Automatic annotation (TrEMBL):
Keywords: GTP-binding, Nucleotide-binding
One Pfam family it belongs to: TGS
Organism: Limosa lapponica baueri
Protein name (record): Developmentally-regulated gtp-binding protein 1
Domain of life of the native organism: Eukaryota
Keyword GTP-binding: yes
Amino acid sequence: MVITVNKVLGSVLLQMARTQKNKATAHHLGLLKARLAKLRRELITPKGGGGGGPGEGFDVAKTGDARIGFVGFPSVGKSTLLSNLAGVYSEVAAYEFTTLTTVPGVIRYKGAKIQLLDLPGIIEGAKDVARTCNLILIVLDVLKPLGHKKIIENELEGFGIRLNSKPPNIGFKKKDKGGINLTATCPQSELDTETVKSILAEYKIHNADVTLRSDATADDLIDVVEGNRVYIPCIYVLNKIDQISIEELDIIYKVPHCVPISAHHRWNFDDLLEKIWDYLKLVRIYTKPKGQLPDYTSPVVLPYCKTTVEDFCMKIHKNLIKDFKYALVWGSSVKHNPQKVGKDHTLEDEDVIQIVKK
């Protein structure tokens, strides 16, 4: 079965490579891309049904405020980087984990606890853990980065992981009848009604409302239809900079999403950690008990997408929101210090909060 799928997959890829990309061939390429996505899914879906849980040996308990997955070939210095980061910044040298995956530790940075995971090849099981990461670091040898980079990116993409991108701005709703209704709120360079209908037909979808709110591609539509994509920020860590010239280093610094380091010499770890912090977008909230000074030693750390007062209360304990009356907030999220706010108020980094109960 796998051999048959691989043959068809190779045939589709060959057709795509031979097809010149222009407006006239957009419909045909869109159809091929839909078939390619279906074949990839067939290859990675376990025999007998759905995706299920992580494979044996990679069921790592999530801990801390964020999770970072490290991916890279064995020769690039990934293990050295992980060990040195954990050794320098970890509050505990030995970390208990559930299975035999390399977990160097939980580092503390700017008050946040960040879990580091070594993903030894995105194999069955490890891919499920990778999808739960808040950030992925692809570690590359600075002397041969491009080949390794492409292989890893393709592997992650094959498992539905999209790096440094946002979900497509496409509305999609299946219905029982009425055919395919396409609405485009702006000009489209690749998708038209015929192409959309052909892509959806590959998924046996013949009745749906599709709204294109920005210039979209066939890949965008396929991602929305598949519905199992995750969008994760990624940093490319170019290791072994002690083996290149200053001029080459200056060029690397201009590449988007890249941080040059030397894991062996522990060079540029500060820049790497600062970039990690920027990409995680964590929000630190300091607590202030009534009649006392704020506690700046142990912030409550929230993900950037869940920063309301209610999210803050739920992070501490779910019963806190039941007794919630209002909150007093000091910081950049309010106009007055303090300001009385409700549970829907959105907090910002380094705000101070005092909860008043009923």
